[in-house]
Amino acid sequence: MSLLRAEGLSKDFGGVRAIESLDFEIRAGTVFSIIGPNGAGKTTLLNLLTGIYRPSAGRLWFDGHALSARAPHEFAAAGIGRTFQNLQIFFNMSALENVMAGRHLHERCGLAAALLRAPRLARAERACRSRAAELLAFVGLEAHERSAADAMPYGALKRLEIARALAGEPRLLLLDEPAAGLNPSEIRDIDRLIQRIAGLGVTVVLVEHNMKLVMGVSQHVLVLNYGRKLAEGDTETVRNDPRVIEAYLGSGGD
Amino acid sequence: MASSRTAGLAALAAVVALLPLALVNNYHYEVAILVGLNAIVCVGLNLLIGYAGQISLGHAGFFGLGAYGSAILTARYGWPPLAALLAATLAVALLALAIGRPILRLRGHYLAMATLGMGVIISIVITTEDRYTGGPDGMSVPPLTLAGVALTGERPWYWVVGVLLVLAVWLARNLIDSPHGRALRALHGSEVAAEVGGIDSARHKVRVFVISAVYAAVAGSLAAHYAGFITPAKVTFFHSIELVTMVVFGGMASTFGAVVGAAVLTTLPQALTVFKEYEMVVFGGVMMLTMIFMPKGLVPTLAALAARLGKAP
Fold this sequence. Notes:
Helix content of chain A is 39%, strand content 24%. With 254 residues, chain A is α/β, with parallel strands linked by helices. Chain A has a domain at 2-79 and 170-249: P-loop containing nucleotide triphosphate hydrolases (Rossmann fold). By secondary structure, chain B is an all-alpha fold. Chain B has a two-stranded antiparallel sheet. A two-stranded antiparallel sheet of chain B has the order 2-3.
């Protein structure tokens, strides 16, 4: 069953076509990787899938329905979460509060109840706090519960973003280069974390340059080049595709 | 968390309760009341500037509309003061809602310019509509009556303002400690991350803008009744800057910082009368020195210092 389907998806910036009539389908419960050389349009694609950009043309279906969301927060409400290539941590908050903020969609709290601190709210806050602590533990940051986000190391912040995204209980989680800038042992941790996330039944879209990671965790790989689909298929198919090899290494015949 | 919240509020309540021991004459009470009224505005403004990270250089406009709304409804139309206060506050809330929607899409300098423009327009309207407002000469305002009793004299006013200040701080801190407050701080930290986390940033910004405008309007209305006379001086751009300076100096994203900022910068010019003519220079200087030496403001800087000293053996 396809969780997300794109049809003729395009994005122009002025005269530049960043994404050009792209068709693909993400099956529920899989790890779907998007790879391609720098500037291939990977992050642009994630921005389209989270409502940060509006497509110039094309349509998106999510869970069998045309995705009618417009603003990013509506994409989130539809069940799409993400992390960012360049960290977008709430540095003015603690690690735990970052994750609690990620639970925003699941909190029902009127303004009056908030201002008057209704007893019901205090209970909801405790529940939110303990859920956030569980998620920090899930990504291996239990030691950082009280840390101020701006005092945490880079590798921990990468995982904090994942915990915050998971807090929204997304059905589709988009990870934009979760391994970028990490050392080999941290990358192994991310590898295992992605598998555990997939194990929860969350469909994962992975944009990543680290081929070992991509080939290890993905069921399906989409290769982009200059905003177009270059190849698509399981890891074996993509790995052996001559067009992919050429895009990455340049043609050997010159 | 819960204990630190109540402890802070209890400390503020204790200061308000015990301060009269140090206030020996009416003039001292007057300064304390001014501090309280400014602090109420600053606690609201801090929600907008300190927590949500959105600037406003026009809050004196909301303060002025609250003040003149109350003044005009009571003096010219004979409304009961409390009804006038509520009506003026509601009108300011609606205005802030209408203005907030378009201008809070702007960021940084653009938002600053838009709010500045808003404040200047309000100030000009109040100064020129002299049929209602008395123009630059100002107008007198009847006293506030509570349950048929006119509130006059410094001491009763002190307690009214003191109780309202504690209430204002309690409400603000509750808001900050709720999902709404987290949403505000989140969009301050990273608006794009807040949005993809499901936070409707436009809605939350407009909401906190309205709340901060309501704080200013209530304080303005009270200030008008307390002084018994108002002039457009409190509606000027300079007063907006004073308010922002109090928030920044006291400490952004610190409710008690806003109170301390209001207290210090309201008392300072009174205490050092030599500054009177150079008030603007002093405020400018305070703003610059704060930005350079303690960009987080007085209270957060002192809190961090205390935490560091506490850790050291």
